[in-house]
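Before the break, one more example. Copy the sequence into your notebook; we will annotate it together after we see the structure.
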Amino acid sequence: MHNSQDIKQKLQQLELILRRELMLVIKDSLKSTEVAHVTMQTPLGQLIDYLPQVKLADTDIFTRLMRLDAAYCQLELGLYGLCSDCEVDIEAYRLITDPTEQRCTQCEQKFSREHRHELRLDH
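Here is what the structure looks like once it is written out:
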């Protein structure tokens, strides 16, 4: 169903975009005296490990990098495109829209309902 080379290429393109975004975020978040200990060539796992150290674990970029890493792992294991909850095929349009998608529509709706309280802001 899925061509692993095409998928890998899409994931690599997304990774490049995310790495560029991350470098800008890191540059903007560090004080002028601090030096970023990551580059565009830093392995993905090290990037993900670095973000909590510079207080960026609660950012959208961190979440997107985690999803990217999960997609790479799934591709390696031959599980890419399967829902992480129910293990049925994720709808093609969802993967085209976001190649790091982890859930089918039904499971995503269920997950959103169950975790909606986490999205609320406490005032």
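Residues 4-29 form the longest helix (26 residues). The mean pLDDT is 88. Try to locate both features in your own notes.
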